[in-house]
Amino acid sequence: MTSSLAELEQPPLEPPSLFGNTVSGTLHDLSIPIGVMPPLVRESAPAFAVSERSEAFRRRFYPDTNLKTWCDWHWQYANRITSLDQLGRMLRLSPEELAAGTGLAALPLAITPYFAAQFNPDDPADPLRRTMVPTVAERTLNPGESADPLGEDGHSPVPGLVHRYPDRVLFLATDTCAAYCRYCTRSRCVGKPHTAGTAGATRKRWPAAIEYIKNHPEVRDVLISGGDPLTMSDAALDHLLSRLRSIPHVEIIRIGSKAPIVMPQRVTPSLLRVLRRYHPLLMSIHCTHPDELTPESTEALRRLADAGIPLGSQTVLLKGINDNVADMKSLLHGLLKSRVRPYYLYHCDPVQGTAHFRTPIFKGVDIIRGLRGHTSGYAVPTYVVDAPGGGGKIPLMPDYVQGYDGEDLVLRNYEGGLYRSYDPAAPAVCEPHAGTAQGGEPCW
Ligand SMILES: *Cc1c(COP(=O)(O)O)cnc(C)c1O
Ligand code: SF4
User: For residue 170, how far is its CA from the centre of ligand 1 (angstroms)?
Assistant: First the structure.
């Protein structure tokens, strides 16, 4: 079993070689021992990687489903786990998970079978499981929390479009996701029962949003998000991308998605054929923990990178899940190996019912301090706090500036050592973060 599974992990993009991997056999050489023939299973092999872990889960819980079906994203999407009853047959649910219920939560429960296969069935503290399985804690509205902490609704000139920064817009193309993250910033508007599964409501907003972009030549960058845009069909994406691409002042288009992580099978050759027509197209991958980097998600990322799509990552800092340097580093290194450039690390927004995920804000600064200088600069994301009320993303970083000593600027390096840099042109009196020096010029 193991050897044929290992075989399956190699996507059969090329037909088995006519000459096989045998030493001397030719096609007509009937003396080749059966044991060294290319395995017959290749003929019905899936069009996607399947890890041993996923395969064991499929055999146990979906024995009637063959590998080809398992690798079909439509099947993964249609067979999402949406009730605690279903989940309870696969995981040993904790009292906190059992008490979550599903009716009252702001967000529905939906997990693809593939992603559920990655959970530890016996450990409610398993990082991936915590991001997806609701607990009773999310029913509480905690101090400082609200439904729309970023004030996105107030920055929407037309429904479904957020125009907060001068030259770029956020296009909320759908309200559906492949799986729902319990800490979602947009829990107020994604996966709502009245729209879930019906793309109509959000799609009706597209023409006005596209018209707005057409009429605003300053918009040179459109970020398509949601919801998860990769829950849409290839045809719908093609339609949206072609409309946006036909606007001359739109220079770049970005897609924000978690599908490569929770439903990697979505990254099909036909999706890639659509996406490559609209370059320059970039993608931000929402990822959380190194355990998400499975053979499956790694294949999805490889396919996207091979299609020439520059990949970035977005990660939310989550208490007890990824709030330590070791796990964060392992995630960031794994992403770089998959050609994903770490982009943003977010403080967990104060959305209602998420206090159990939130770290102190300066935890993120500590993590950046543990990364910068200690590992490749390419692996270090920018830590941002999305300012409540609509101030936008505000970067926070460790302070390496000690201040001036005479004509020297004193700087602290990543190891804590102090270094002087002769800087005579600087204002004579300048305290760190004093705001302005003499003459009203900012210090730095
Ligand atoms: C994050 C975000 C963007 C994109 O910001 P970048 O820093 O350019 O990645 C655009 N609009 C809104 C509303 C956002 O929240
Ligand atoms: S994929 Fe994004 S939009 Fe969807 S639930 Fe997760 S955080 Fe929210």
Answer: 7
